[in-house]
Structures are given as structure tokens and as C-alpha cells.
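Q: Given only this backbone (578 positions), what sequence would you predict?
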């Protein structure tokens, strides 16, 4: 017969030298029903599991009942811990005070137990606490602290160095059943660092209707498991499923140096750094690439240029920032810097071709390795010229600013609000809701050349500078305002009364008109085209259209602030009468 090669499919094709009991422990011989041999449960008893492992469980159904537990022991004491199938550490997870007839007294804190020279440590339990119907899930604090975990509904999560949440523990619970699972890689990384092994304990009873067979007993023991099995007929006399089998024992999960690292180790754990495009070959046109490993890059202290310099600029499509801009509560993005909480940050810039620039060495040392694949997918060859301010700062050691129209616009709003407080007794633009504040703080221009990319950033500007106007303050400030008069109309009247001959608020009305007529979302709409033309961005590439709007809004708000500041001595009521 011709032999063929087949792929290994988890759950369907056993691999060579299987690591679970279903592949290493053959079914004991006997006349008992096949349903009593717990093949699925044996499949879950694995010395090298992937994904999740159940560490605490309790349930009771018509066909089966049982569960799991888990305690910790010192690494290297696994053999002693598996000397018997009886669960060890049964007294953990409860506080007790004791006294003896001789007058001695003390307490047990429920965190460690020493029985027969085997020291066990608490890891997890479901605790029935008085005052609540649901069991309370208690988890080892060292484990939670190691991952800096935080509680979420039905579990715990942690944040990686890249700022991403990862599941750590998940559980299901009801009044009389529960199941707690832990991510395997995170558990084994913790055990490796802590010098412990996990003893996972199993106890499953399977029940069937068939009767009249001989009892079968079997015992399995190897270097990582010790489990008993027996099948007995007519044992549960009061049940309509009187025959049963029981799988009972313990197995070991050892510590392991896995790919998962706590946040404080991630930046120093990379074994391989990816390469990025930094140029093109002058003769072949092929991409030139180099590792981002800082140790392989040159510095100003090198004697020659034999190594590519740490400060070699690497270029990316603007789309590389989309995922970060989409989560303003997690990331702060400006044209000059990208940062995540207080975890990491890297300097960036936008060059004359609209590409994002990051120094090669900064990629390897300041962007977490979890994000390297994302950045590589947007890496492109050099094009355009570095923004002059950054070049002068980073390479000529000169004090130099860079164009910052978004920052100028934000500062103009703050200054105008300050002038409004003095003139009108309150801020012209209200404080922003928290979600809008986050979006405004990370406001960026379009990150693609698709005209629809203008929608979200222009909508944020409209919400801040149009919807954010304080209509109540304006109604108080404008004499003769109509009952239902809109904020933009009231603002125009106010500025006119202050001597605004240039109609400084026009760009805000144009912005409102663009949004209300469909704007960039419906470019075929004739009203939209007219609105875009009023804004001065009809037919303009999205990135330049955005910059033009931002500059116009910033200039308008600056003028509004100047009018308020320069008119501090003018009485608004008298100005209106005149």
C-alpha cells in the first residue's frame, strides 16, 4: 500500500507522540459499556495544551457530574505531588483559627498548606459566600499582579506593551455550577517566572442505564499524570442511571518560556527584529531592506558609515495610523507623535509626499514588537522630502518649529474662550463630552486619498466649533435675538456688533452647510458640490483639503478671539443700539 502524507488537523488527526491521555492511555479491557470510558475528558488532560485550560469546575447533569481544581507546588516537586491520585491542597482557600487542649493556638490563612512535606499554594477557587447566590471566583493575587490584570465581566484581562487587551481568565457561573479557564501561555509564563508547577485536579463521574457487568479498575501513571479509573454496575441504586465510571486524579502543567510576556518584559524579549524598506537599488530598482534591531544600526559614535544609521527615516502610507486614530481613548496621535497610554510613544512626522516618517532604530526600540507586523504592511520606499522643522531639530540641532495647523486651531479656541470669559462671562465654546474630547485631541487629517476619508475629521471639527457653541451665552450677549435663532446666526450678530466687517464666522457657516447638505459623503449631489466650493476644497486632494479647512477655521477663531479681546470696554447693549 502506498503511504501518503497528511496534514495534522487539531482535534481530528493525532500527532506523533501525543501529549494527552486519550493517545497515551488505552481503554482498559472489560465488558463495561463504551460510554463509560471518558475519551473526551482524557483528551482534555494534556501536558502541552493550547488555548485555554480549565482550572476550576463544578457541574451536575443527568449524564455526568464532577469538576476540576488547581493548586501550585514548587517546580521540581511534581513527582511527590503525584504520589497519589487524591487531590492535594484541599484546605486551601479558607481562613481558620485553631486551638489545642494544651493551650496552643494559631491560624491558617488558606494561602499555603504543608502536608507530608508537600507545600501547596492557593491558585483558584469558586467560593460560596454568605449574602450572595452566585459563587465568588477567587484567583491567586501573584498571578493577577504578574500580568497587571484588571477585572471585566466574567473574567480578567491585561494590557500588552502595544496597548492591546488580552483575555487572561474567563468564567461561567450559576448558583450550582461554574467553570474557570486560564490562558495556557500566560499561565505557563507565570509558572516559569515564579518557580512553580500547576497541579490540575480532575474528578468526573459518568452515568449510564446499562446494568450487569463486572467491575473494572485501571490506574495510569507517567511523569506528568496520575489518574485512576473504575467502572461499576448498579452502584447508584436510587438513580435511573445506576451504572457509573469515575475518572479521578491529578496532572502537572510546568512552567515554560512562552511567547507571551508581561508588559514590562516585552520591549526586551524580542529575539528577531524584522527588516524594513529604507531605499531602492540604483541599478536594479529592488527594495533595500535592513533590520530595525538598534544593536545592528550605526550611531554618531561609529568611525565610518559601514552600518546603516539608527536615524535612517523609514516611510509608511498614512493608513498605518488608521487603527490608532480609531481608538482615541487608547492612543494619542498628532502629526508629531504617536503614544499609547503611558506605555510607549514614538516620534513621527508627515513628509512632503504625505508619508509617515519614523526612524529605523525607533521602530525597533520604541514601537512594541506586537505592532511590527502592522507597520511592515504599510512600509513603502522613500518619496518626498522630510519636513524641514524636523530636519533642523534632529540633524542640525537648531530650535525650529514645524507647521501645526491643528495645534494652532486648538490654541485659537482656547484663547477665544479666555477672551469670551472676560467679555461675556463664559466660554463661547462649551466643554466637550469625553468621547468628543478624545477625538479632538487625536484629530488627524485624512489617512487615505479616498474623498470619503474627509468625512470623519471634518465632522469632528464641525461638532467642536459649530455644535459646541454655547447658544445660551450667545442669547444673553446678543440684544434682540430671536427665540429660536441658531447659534451661528447669533454669533454673526455678536461679531457684527463688535465691528466685524470681514464676517469672520463665515467658514463655520460653510462647514455647517457642507455637513447638512451631505458634504463629502455625497459628492454627486449638486448642493454638496456648492458647499465644498464655498469651503474652497472642491476638487482638492483630501489631505490638502483638510489642511485648508483647518487653517481657515483656525484663522477665523483667532479673529473671533481678537474681536472679543479688543472690545473689552464696549457695552454690547449700547453697541447694538448704535
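A: Predicted residues:
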Amino acid at each position: 500500500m502506498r503511504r501518503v502524507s497528511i496534514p495534522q488537523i487539531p482535534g481530528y488527526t493525532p500527532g506523533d507522540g501525543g501529549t494527552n491521555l486519550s493517545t497515551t492511555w488505552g481503554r482498559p479491557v472489560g465488558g463495561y459499556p463504551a460510554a463509560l470510558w471518558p475519551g473526551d475528558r482524557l483528551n482534555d488532560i494534556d501536558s502541552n495544551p493550547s488555548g485555554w485550560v480549565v482550572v476550576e469546575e463544578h457541574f451536575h447533569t443527568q449524564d455526568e457530574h464532577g469538576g476540576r481544581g488547581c493548586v501550585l507546588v514548587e517546580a521540581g516537586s511534581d513527582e511527590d505531588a503525584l504520589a497519589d491520585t487524591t487531590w492535594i491542597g484541599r484546605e486551601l482557600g479558607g481562613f481558620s483559627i485553631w486551638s489545642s487542649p494544651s493551650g496552643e493556638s494559631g491560624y491558617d490563612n488558606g494561602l499555603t498548606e504543608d502536608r507530608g512535606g508537600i507545600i501547596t499554594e492557593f491558585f483558584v477557587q469558586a467560593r460560596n459566600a454568605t449574602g450572595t447566590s452566585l459563587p465568588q471566583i477567587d484567583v491567586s493575587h501573584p498571578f493577577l499582579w504578574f500580568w497587571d490584570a484588571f477585572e471585566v465581566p466574567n473574567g480578567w484581562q491585561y494590557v500588552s506593551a502595544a496597548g492591546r487587551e488580552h483575555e487572561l481568565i474567563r468564567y461561567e457561573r450559576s448558583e450550582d455550577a461554574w467553570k474557570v479557564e486560564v490562558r495556557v501561555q500566560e499561565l505557563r509564563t507565570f509558572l516559569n517566572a515564579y518557580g512553580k508547577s500547576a497541579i490540575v485536579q480532575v474528578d468526573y463521574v459518568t452515568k449510564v442505564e446499562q446494568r450487569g457487568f463486572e467491575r473494572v479498575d485501571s490506574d495510569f501513571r507517567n511523569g506528568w499524570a496520575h489518574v485512576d479509573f473504575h467502572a461499576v454496575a448498579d452502584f447508584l441504586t436510587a438513580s435511573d442511571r445506576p451504572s457509573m465510571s469515575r475518572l479521578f486524579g491529578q496532572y502537572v502543567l510546568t512552567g515554560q518560556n512562552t511567547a507571551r510576556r508581561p508588559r514590562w518584559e516585552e520591549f526586551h524579549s524580542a529575539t528577531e527584529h524584522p527588516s524594513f524598506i529604507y531605499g531602492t537599488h540604483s541599478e536594479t530598482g529592488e527594495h533595500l531592506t535592513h533590520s530595525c534591531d538598534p544593536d545592528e544600526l550605526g550611531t554618531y559614535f561609529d568611525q565610518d558609515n559601514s552600518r546603516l544609521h539608527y536615524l535612517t527615516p523609514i516611510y509608511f502610507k498614512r493608513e498605518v495610523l488608521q487603527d490608532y486614530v480609531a481608538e482615541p481613548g487608547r492612543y494619542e496621535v498628532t502629526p508629531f507623535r504617536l503614544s499609547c497610554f503611558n506605555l510607549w510613544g514614538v516620534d513621527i512626522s508627515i513628509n512632503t509626499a504625505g508619508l509617515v516618517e519614523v526612524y529605523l532604530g525607533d521602530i525597533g526600540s520604541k514601537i512594541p514588537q506586537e505592532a511590527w507586523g502592522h507597520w511592515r504592511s504599510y512600509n513603502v520606499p522613500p518619496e518626498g522630502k522630510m519636513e524641514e522643522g524636523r530636519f533642523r531639530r534632529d540633524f542640525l540641532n537648531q530650535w525650529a518649529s514645524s507647521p501645526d495647523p491643528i495645534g494652532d486651531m486648538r490654541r485659537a479656541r482656547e484663547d477665544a474662550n479666555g477672551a469670551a470669559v472676560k467679555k461675556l462671562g463664559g466660554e463661547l465654546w462649551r466643554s466637550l463630552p469625553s468621547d468628543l474630547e478624545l477625538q479632538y485631541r487625536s484629530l488627524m487629517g485624512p489617512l487615505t486619498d479616498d474623498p470619503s476619508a474627509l468625512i470623519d475629521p471634518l465632522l469632528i471639527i464641525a461638532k467642536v466649533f459649530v455644535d459646541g457653541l454655547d447658544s445660551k451665552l450667545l442669547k444673553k450677549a446678543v440684544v434682540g435675538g430671536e427665540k429660536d435663532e441658531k447659534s451661528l446666526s447669533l454669533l454673526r450678530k455678536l461679531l457684527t456688533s463688535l465691528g466685524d466687517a470681514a464676517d469672520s464666522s463665515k467658514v463655520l457657516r460653510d462647514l455647517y452647510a457642507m455637513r447638512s447638505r451631505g458634504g463629502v459623503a455625497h459628492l454627486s449631489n449638486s448642493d454638496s458640490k456648492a458647499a465644498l466650493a464655498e469651503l474652497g476644497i472642491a476638487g482638492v486632494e483630501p489631505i490638502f483639503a483638510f489642511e485648508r479647512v483647518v487653517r481657515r477655521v483656525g484663522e477665523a477663531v483667532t479673529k473671533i478671539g481678537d474681536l472679543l479681546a479688543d472690545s473689552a470696554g464696549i457695552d454690547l447693549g449700547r453697541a447694538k443700539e448704535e
